[in-house]
Amino acid sequence: MRPLGPADPDHIGPHRVLAVLGAGGMGKVYLARTPRQQLTAIKVIHRDLVEDPSFLNRFGREVRTAQMVRGPFTPAILAADLEASTPWMATEYVPGPTLSEAVRANGPFPEESLRVLTLGLARALQAIHTAGLMHRDLKPGNVLISPRGPQVIDFGIARAVEGTVLTKTGEAFGTPAYTSPEAILGQTQSPASDVFSLAGVVVFAATGEPPFGRGRAAEVLTRVAGGEPRLEGVPASLRPLLDRCLAKAPEERPTSDQIVHELSAGPLPSAEHGWLPSQVDQEIDHHRRELQRVATTAEPPRLQASSTTGGRRHTALIIGAATAALVLAAGTGIALLRPWETGEVADQASEETAEGDVSSGTPDDSGPAFTDTVEGTYFDMNGDLLYVHSGDRLTPWDWREGEPQQAFESPMSAVDVKGDRIAGVHEGALTVWDLEQNEIGAYELDNPDGEAYIDGVSIASERPVALFTERDSGVEATLRLWNWETGEEWEEEFPGRIPKATLSPDGTHLALALPTYGAAVARAEVREIDGMETVHEVLHDDPDADGSFDTDSLDVEFSPSGDLVAISSGYLETTIVHDLAQDEPVAEFESSYSPLGLEFTPDESRLLLGLSPSQALRSGGYQWDLTTGEVLTSTTTLIYADPTTHPTGETIVVTDDSATSPALIFLDPETLQNTHELR
Fold first, then answer.
1. How far apart are CA 312 and CA 579, in angstroms?
2. I want to staple 90 with a disulfide (CB 3.0 to 4.6 A). Which of 79, 438, 455, 500 is the partner?
């Protein structure tokens, strides 16, 4: 990123230019701010290209086609003005280094990182090829690096350049070291040509060198067309796959679908540690700081995005490609798949409130709204606010505008929001509030100093009852049911942690996920609240297993009506749906990973299962049609953890904790495409 020079424009169309991001054969790339105070990357087309009589027609056609590409590994083309004297296009901005920069600065990637890189590139090609495009110039310089995965850029515009001044001088189109043999020989190119380039990019990441070496273009092209690739430095586990991708005959190469399938079955890095080497993460942090510096100093304060009071930084709403809008900003984090902007912190004193007071007022100054984790998300009864439980903080958000509201100032170790009620464990009690944060009732805990051992809270939207589990030592668990209007309570003890306990919306049933310790048995059961009679039970019994089930591999969830219950076992790779009203099974699905949240759509026609980022990278996440039994897994987005549906079906929000700053990603309910993000 460089300061603007005398020859650089102040504005491109309506956008104010802030800095130079780079330059290439297509033109120059700028960091710019839109009239809506948003940041985006704008590529200005080189004047020599514009002078070609047929270029603009080809370029416009390819850009319009490229705008159809949607996926988590392909930053979208958001806008373009082909009628301007200097045509330009705006794209999503990824504030990270290119793969070539990352390898040059930090050395080759380790094996686990290479597997994620290969998988992400293959999924990017899936999205590009599905839109009827080919990349034609996939190389390390066209791959940006982010904690969420590789980002493939400059797709869809390659064909527009063919036949222009760039190729009339005799230079072969594309980058010689990563060009396919058929492109060199003038033969028909196909998606298999991009697969050849993909392998070259991965070899470079593994060794620091292209597979056919360096040198003069003519020498390199000769080796690509007739020589053998050098794969000695590539990890043995990836060498056979890359060797097939580098086959001279296109029909002998695997497709991007086959690459995804093959790599999805193998090991990937855990979500906790991310996929990038630590030194590359540090480089990305440097990019973040530099971008924030430029965004906050390159223009007068009057143009900065507004912020909340009380010292809390403004966390942004980040618009994705599916909204047909440009990008909104982020102040506490960075949108690694989306552009972002920074709001300057307002220097205003917060109002004084009494300790434990949850009445309305200005937000406190104890830090950003999102910490290193997001524990849960909950819509209110109308769907206007999204309550985010992050760390020990509960903050309501105007999720459409990306504005945080007054946060609960007291720490909370467990939370639930249903209808017009909010429940949270804090100050040694389970407290229930209305949506105005007025206290309705409080249950004093027997172990006020041990509230960190409250595993979960669930309340009903149509009945004044709360369900929660309390552990005094981490060994014994007590399940408690409490009516805050009558004061009635019920309890039952269990020999170990209860992974999930939840109430039906009407408060007539409860569902439990209960591993049995000391034996290879786990069970999920549904009980009627009145009488505590078990009305449905599922036993997962594996006599050949050693020890007990993983306590986190079992999940249960009611449908909005309470008539259906979903039970998912990661250990047995099964998710079932049972009709409680008819006492009969509805469907059974294969689900290969431990569930990180189950959610029915409001009309109960579909069921979603959330996954960790590394697991979602393999499968895309799970979504099923309960009427037909069809698997509706998307290949253009990732269904991350804790899917939460809007009460009227307007959106679905999932949580991505793969980066150092968590992201809440909002998905279109029909297409599951990213519409915007909160950070």
1. 46
2. 79
